[in-house]
Design a protein that fits this description.
The protein has helices at 38-44, 87-90, 131-134, 137-153, 170-181, 194-204, 232-241, 262-267, 280-291, 309-317; strands at 2-8, 11-16, 26-35, 55-56, 60-67, 74-77, 80-81, 101-102, 114-118, 122-124, 162-166, 186-190, 207-209, 222-227, 242-250, 271-274, 302-305, 326-329. The protein has 331 residues and is α/β, with parallel strands linked by helices. The protein folds into 2 domains: 2-136 and 301-329, Quinone Oxidoreductase, Chain A, domain 1 (Alpha-Beta Complex), CATH 3.90.180.10; 140-274, NAD(P)-binding Rossmann-like Domain (Rossmann fold). The radius of gyration is 19 Å and the shape is globular.
């Protein structure tokens, strides 16, 4: 089969790879659509020691079961392979599973014509749903899970809050779109790439700022800040923008360590929340939300052939794409 393989830092190669082997309790999928995630870009840059080349990346997928339980059905799935028995799994918080592995990290991913995955990881979807839209389930579930955590911590309902989203990539844009569908009207989004700024403004219909030009909300003016980048500079900006008693939700992990303003965090009683991925329940809820249009028309998503994947990675790396998400499909 053909696959797009991470072969070295800053290199992905479209080449022949062995067919996936279906293990006990697994299904083999024909991949219908797969998105390029920011974490795939981190691996591409050689910044993720957990993803070692040669490796087939890709964990945002929609596919059709060609072998195993449910043959013939189109599905999406949870790329986190969890044990099902640890304390977090039995609580329904399987994103925190102590024994988790992951598609596109510890096993071959979805940048391929076919992929194997445990059948228990599959998530049902409407059979007439656009596979490109279904491939957005994973990043959209990250946004849904993040907003759920944030609104639990906020003192007032989301429609009453001023929301600042830092980062106009897929997670940031999907978060802004979902927040708007939940009734939030005061949304500001920050993005450094001018192409993405224009795309985000059209898609989300909110105020979009250029941090490189010094644009930012007034200090202490925002009820809820969502950092979908996770860099040292964005963490600093998030703490500056948030109101006393407000909430900062940290989603991105561009930098794994940096200083934050602990004085403000403490004296202003700011709630700082880390969030990681989603639960299986979040994925199921997200499929329904996508099918019902809660994230808008998704016209900002760009689709390219899997065979053109190396160019897609390069365009994302060089900032040449206005799309917050590129989805690859088989030729």
């Amino acid at each position: 089969m053909k696959a797009l393989v991470y072969t070295a830092p800053n290199e992905v190669t479209y080449r022949d790879e062995p067919e996936p082997v279906r293990g006990e309790g697994e299904a083999v999928l024909r991949i219908d659509a797969v998105g390029i995630c920011g974490s795939d870009m981190h691996a591409f840059h050689g910044r993720d020691p957990r993803r070692v080349p040669p490796l087939i990346l890709g964990h945002e997928f929609c596919g059709t079961i060609v072998a195993g339980p449910g043959q013939g059905k189109r599905v999406t799935g949870n790329p986190l392979i969890t044990c099902g028995t640890c304390e977090y799994c039995v609580q329904g918080r399987n994103n925190l599973c102590a024994n988790r592995t992951m598609v596109g990290m510890t096993r071959a991913g979805a940048f391929a014509e076919r992929m194997s995955i445990p059948a228990t990881s599959l998530v049902e979807m409407p059979q007439d749903m656009d596979p490109v839209k279904a491939a957005l389930t994973e990043p959209a579930a990250t946004a849904l899970h993040a907003l759920d955590l944030a609104t639990r911590a906020a003192r007032r309902p989301l429609p009453e809050l001023a929301l600042y989203v830092i980062g106009g990539g897929a997670i940031g844009l999907l978060t802004a779109l979902l927040a708007r569908s939940y009734g939030c009207r005061r949304i500001v989004l920050a993005e450094t790439n001018p192409l993405r700024r224009a795309s985000a403004e059209r898609a989300a219909g909110c105020r979009v700022l250029d941090p490189l030009a010094g644009e930012a909300p007034a200090d202490g003016s925002i009820d809820l800040v969502i950092d979908a980048v996770g860099g040292g500079a964005t963490r600093k900006a998030a703490l500056a923008a948030v109101k006393p008693g407000g909430v900062v939700l940290h989603v991105g992990l561009q930098d794994w360590a940096s200083e934050i303003d602990m004085r403000k965090l403490t004296l202003a009683e700011v709630t700082l929340i880390g969030t990681y991925t989603y639960s299986t329940a979040d994925l199921r809820a997200t499929v329904k939300a996508l099918a019902e249009g809660a994230f808008g028309d998704l016209a900002w998503v760009e689709t390219r052939p899997l065979a053109d994947g190396a160019r897609a990675f390069d365009d994302l790396d060089k900032g040449r794409s206005a799309a917050a998400k590129i989805v690859l499909t088989p030729a």
